[in-house]
Amino acid sequence: MAESGSGADRRTGDRVEIFGGLRGEVMVYQAMTVRDISHGGAQVETAVPLLIDSLHDIRLSLADAAVVVKGRVVYCRIANVDAEAVTYRSGLEFIQPSSGVLSVIGHFIDSVRGGVPGF
To answer: Distance between CA 20 and CA 108 in Å, rounded?
Structure first.
């Protein structure tokens, strides 16, 4: 890793070298298109496959409100293949959504069903 600044060692503690490597994961935000939604989950399209049974924090922009809910991938399949890209469609089950999140999702669903402009 490159150092910045004066080149001084800026570590606050000793590091231990891991021989053979240590497995980890990094969270990366990936754009998705929500194809349908219910109180219990959603079907989404992404440019990358989602691992079945993996858990993800999902940010949903629902008209004038945004919520974050944890979702478990129930299935993932190829939805479309063209010259430029592959599109994946996945089913997400919402895991223990709060009552506030359920309220926002419910209001959004009711608004879409009622044909409210702007949804």
So the answer is: 49
Q: How far is the C-alpha of 88 from the C-alpha of 50, rounded, in Å?
A: 8
- In contact, 96 and 58? CB cutoff 8 Å: no
Across the range 22-36, mean pLDDT stands at 86
* Whether the Cβ atoms of residue 61 and residue 84 lie closer than 8 Å to each other: no
23 vs 86, higher pLDDT: 86
Of residues 11 and 82, the one with the higher pLDDT is: 82
pLDDT for residue 53 is more than 60: yes
Domains and CATH numbers, the chain: 32-113 (2.40.10.220)
Q: Rounded to 5 degrees, what angle do the CA atoms 44, 30, 81 make?
A: 60
Helix (H) or strand (E) holding 41: strand 41-46
